[in-house]
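Worked example 3 (structure in, sequence out).
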């Protein structure tokens, strides 16, 4: 039996965390063949879901959010690497939403194909100020050289899905892709829930 619940978005009765009607309001964006692959724009229902998930400890949203991603990820990925938080930020925030989403995505995929999530590969070694107020060029400088790779054997020769919540200028994704490739990954596909 389903327990009665309420949609986090519209507060109407729903067995799902976010009801079908609200999910249906999210418009999918067109992605190019090479990515980045995003589900929708960073607005409306999707933006609200990401906010609840990231900042209001609604961990359970990882499941419906991961299910959205199933529609956009390239079919031949071999491993998931979430964009990491610096240890200091991780301690403040208690958890990394992208890591949580990555685990959930791997779980969803496991119904058809085994795609492991690697939480110990990409590390943020330098704590950086928030990107929010920075220009494109400043963002690129801000993230240059702040990521490191460990456990390289896990990604060597593999097609890696780099997972983040929101794609803005792509500075973070580009820098992460660069170090992952340098460490031997054969291909990187950037996947995010939303793009702004
Ligand atoms: Zn709803």
């Amino acid at each position: 039996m389903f327990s009665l619940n309420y949609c986090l978005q519209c507060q109407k009765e729903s067995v799902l965390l976010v009801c079908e009607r609200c999910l249906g309001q999210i418009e999918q964006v067109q992605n190019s063949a090479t990515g980045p692959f995003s589900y929708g724009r960073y607005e409306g229902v999707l933006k609200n879901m990401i906010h609840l998930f990231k900042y209001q400890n609604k961990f359970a949203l990882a499941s419906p959010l991961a299910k959205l991603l199933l529609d956009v990820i390239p079919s031949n990925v071999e491993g998931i690497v979430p964009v990491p938080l610096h240890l200091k930020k991780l301690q403040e925030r208690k958890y990394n939403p992208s890591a949580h989403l990555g685990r959930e995505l791997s779980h969803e995929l496991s119904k058809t194909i085994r795609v492991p999530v690697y939480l110990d590969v990409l590390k943020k070694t330098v704590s950086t100020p928030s990107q929010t107020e920075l220009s494109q060029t400043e963002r690129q400088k801000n993230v240059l050289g702040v990521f490191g790779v460990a456990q390289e054997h896990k990604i060597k020769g593999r097609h890696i899905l780099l997972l983040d919540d929101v794609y803005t200028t792509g500075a973070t994704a580009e820098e992460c892709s660069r170090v992952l490739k340098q460490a031997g990954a054969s291909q990187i596909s950037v996947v995010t829930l939303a793009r702004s």
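Notes: The mean pLDDT is 93. Strands lie at 37-41, 79-82, 122-124, 147-149, 159-167, 187-195.
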